[in-house]
UniProtKB/TrEMBL annotation:
The keyword Signal applies. It comes from the Bacteria. This is Lipoprotein LprG. Keywords: Signal. PROSITE patterns: PROKAR_LIPOPROTEIN.
Amino acid sequence: MPRASTRTAVLSAGLALIAALGACGAEPPPRPGPLMAARPDPRPRADAMLSQVMNKISERGSVHSSVRGSLGVVGELTAEGAVRYRGPRTDLAFEGQTRTPGNRSPQHLSLSIMDGVGYLRTPLVRPAPDKPWLKITPGGADFGDKLLGPALDQLHDAVDPRAAFTGVEPATRIQTSAPDMVDGKPTTRYELRIITSQAADVADDPQQRDRFRQAADAGEPELGYQLWLDDSGLPARFAADQEVAQAGEVSLTSTYRDWGVPAEIPVPPAGQIGVFDALPPQAQQPPR
């Protein structure tokens, strides 16, 4: 299954030195002139196309999907799920299996995100014997929040084009586009790049701005995604591959079906939700 890569085909705008026009003869060599402005990005802007896609997604209101890939320290993921759109909110739920490095036995995983808060159930990060669910609040203070909060944010972006591009459409470029097939149906595959420094300037959400600024400062000028659109302009597949602080690589590919079919997003009872103060040994990465 195709996966997006953020480190290939990256085009970064640069500054070039211009030499002053020098006279001929025995005069001293010309001194460098002022820096030129950045060259215009030759790639097409994606904001018009993305605006149409976002409107279509919001009109349908929900979708079911199959997800494959990596959730960093949580492990390799194979899951079935659903996404529900409520105004600006995106809620999602998945049921599947993960397999961590060095662990041959797959582990069941349940994940829900409601109103931006995540609920994770897996034996690898079980908070307490009688509390199988871990609550993950982005920006929270406990260990689970700090460890998995960044991955939770990225998970939203990795499984949902609307979450990935809303607010940063003007900073997104179309690297390439080409005909393709998804599950036997014709689509158009778009290689999209979010320019991190521009996204940090235009994003409305403070957390979103911080993430893009951190990526830009860390030397990652662009974030890459792949988006397949069907003949109606709806996503048929979406892929993202990103490095997330403290969580490792989050690399997911979602294949969509049943746009508009109602989706239920379950939330666990409060009495089954716990926290933990350190990463359990079975969830730690093996030594290299």
